[in-house]
Amino acid sequence: MRLHPRYRVAALVGDLATENDATRLARSQAPVKQIITGTFCHLEAAMVQNALEGWDLNHLDFLFIENVGNLVCPSSYDLGEDLRFVLLPVTEGEDKPLKYPTIFNSLDVAIITKSDLADAVQFDEVEARRNIQAVRPGMEVFKLSAKTGEGMIDCLYFLERRRMPSRAAAAV
Asked: Is residue 138 a contact partner of residue 126, using CB atoms and an 8 Å limit?
């Protein structure tokens, strides 16, 4: 979590059965909690509320909530987010926005992930961006690689810019 040194960052992670993602994220030294959903394919607001018990949100600059990893169920559930992202791994193909338009229409930003693998899986970035814009014209799109760091600075700068108006509105 590259924001962690400069900002107070925490994360909630949803998964059907394991705590693997929370364990990996905890290496960043940021507070992390896992939400095990069992048979639910999505997080619900009450699950998030329960997981946040004991955390003072006024002492956080960013709270990231990772919903359960599919492109169908999470699009219908409001968790109270200020900003919603959809992750599109290059390994999934550039047609995902056309297959799952609801999630792209209900979120704010698309992030093309694992860009370091694009050549290996013959991912067509131009087509992916065209498909995203066909479903959600004007949607902000970032291309990232956690492995190489590609795109991280631009995406983090975007988060910092978006945080400022949210904090100002919360203070009023």
From this structure: no
| Burial environment of residue 130 by CB neighbours within 10 A (0 to 12, 13 to 18, 19 or more) | middle
Phi-psi region of 149 (alpha: psi -120 to 50; beta: other; left: phi over 0): left
Amino acid in the structure at residue 119: D
Q: Does residue 165 contact residue 172 with C-beta atoms inside 8 Å?
A: no
List the helix and strand counts (H, then E) for the chain.
6, 6
Q: Tell me the pTM.
A: 0.83
pLDDT digits (tens, 9 = 90+) for 96-124: 999 999 989 988 999 999 999 999 999 99
Q: Which of 92, 162, 81 is nearest to 132 (CA)?
A: 92
Q: How confident is the model at residue 165 (pLDDT cuts 50, 70, 90)?
A: low
3-state secondary structure of 58: helix
pLDDT, position 171: 46
> 61: which 2 tokens?
């600059």
**Can you give 19-45 as a three-state secondary structure string?**
CHHHHHHHCCCCCEEEEECCCCCCCCH
